[in-house]
Amino acid sequence: MDKEGRFIEIRPITQGTTDLDIAFWQAQGPEAIFRAAWELVVTAHELKGGTADELRLQRTAFSIGEAPR
What we know:
Elements: H1 18-28, H2 30-47
């Protein structure tokens, strides 16, 4: 594990199979999978010069109704 408590395994691609990966992620559960996926999204965005704040959900509030007569 690294200093942040994450499990890290390094192996050559030619020797790797997906069996360990699938078992690992199934054992982690959906919250850990979502956190890891979001971390990848943030990292990719930062590598392109963006900031994490730009990835926040943008909300616009408005009302749709009949026009006054």
